[in-house]
Structure formats: structure tokens, C-alpha cells
Amino acid sequence: MIQRFFSLDDAKAILSIPLNIKLPGDRLVWAYTPKVNFTVRSAYKLAVDLGIGNTSGGASNVENAKIFWKTIWRLNIPNKVKSFAWKASKDILPTKANLCRRKVLIDPVCEACEAGIESSAHIFWECDKACEVWQLSGLTFDTHRLVFPKFVDLLWHLKFSQRVGDDTLELVLMIAWNIWYNLYTTPLRHGRMHMWLDLDPTSGMVVSKGRGSVG
């Protein structure tokens, strides 16, 4: 490789430079995670950020964003659930991960499963407890296989890739809101893991309870 890009004399000079034996051996690293280990989630996020696989162009993205939010605002769900959808999509919900970033909390670990950081993605589909709710909801997508790093990515995928109807989006948002409502109304460090016991995950009960709770 060196001979390919340098003259013969320069290549010899470069190759004659002694290496520091104290340096660690070479290893493959992935620069897009804190622990430099490759994950599908980080690759997906990178692809989204770079626009890989998106052939619609910037103008179409702007138009899709308008269509997306117009769809959300017209859904037959309470306004507070629409507001929740906006906050979740902007990743500004007071999750433990966000509170830790703001120096409000120290421990970001999910108290429901004690097996992950309580981010939006974890709360709504990575957590085993959340997966149980989705499995009993009657929806067809498998939450165990979701790799969306943000809540808005899931909604975008459902709207533009799976092209689901408004009724499915309404159910998804009502279930997500119920998950968040049950979690948020349980004080931190006072048994958040028990809040799942009061959440009826069947689609009819989720929608009726959600609409009754917020008016």
C-alpha cells in the first residue's frame, strides 16, 4: 500500500521507521458507538443521518414531513396524546436517559427490567415489559426486531414503508401513550417496575382507557 502511493525512496524511508512495541495491536473499531463496537442500531442511525437508501430527495423529505405531521394531527385521538407523540418524536420526554443528560439523575437504568438504559426506544419497545404489551395488542409488527433508535423513526416507518392506515397509527400512539402514562405517573425509585401490573395491553382497553384518561 505504501509503495503504491509513495516514491521508492520515500516508501523505503517510511518502512524503516521503527514501531513502538508498547503500542497495542491493531483492532477493528466502530466510531459511532461509545464503546466502539458495531451495532445494527448505530448503523441504522448512521444510514438515516447520511440519507442512505433514501432516493426521494430533499424536497420529497420536506413534503413527507408535512404529510406525516398532517396525518398525526388529524388522527382521532385526544390532543394530549398528539402532544405526547410530538414530544416523543422530538425525544424530549423526561426519560431517565434524558434526565441523566441534564444532570437531574445519576442512574439511567430502566427500573422495569433492570437490563437497559431508560431511553425512549427502550421504554416503548426494547424493554421486555413493553414487548409483552405490544404482543397482546393485536398489532402485527414484531417489536423484538425493531431497531429504530427514535420514536419518530417507528412512526415514519409505519406511515411511509408499511403504509398503515390511520386506525393503526391511532392504536400505536394510544398504546405508547398508555405505556408512558403508567410509567410517568409512577414516581422514580418507587417501584416503576410495578406499574406494568395496572396496564391492560389489549387494544380495546388501551384505547378506551387512554381516551377516558385524557378526555
In short:
The protein is mainly alpha-helical.
Walk me through this protein's architecture.
The chain has helices at about 1-5, 10-15, 40-50, 55-75, 80-90, 95-100, 120-125, 130-135, 150-160, 165-185, 205-215. The protein has about 220 residues and is mainly α. The protein has one domain (about 55-215). Helix 7 (about 120-125) packs across helix 8 (about 130-135). It is elongated. The protein starts with a helix and ends with a helix. Mean pLDDT is about 75; it is low at about 55-60, about 190-200 and about 200-215. This is Reverse transcriptase zinc-binding domain-containing protein. Pfam families: zf-RVT.
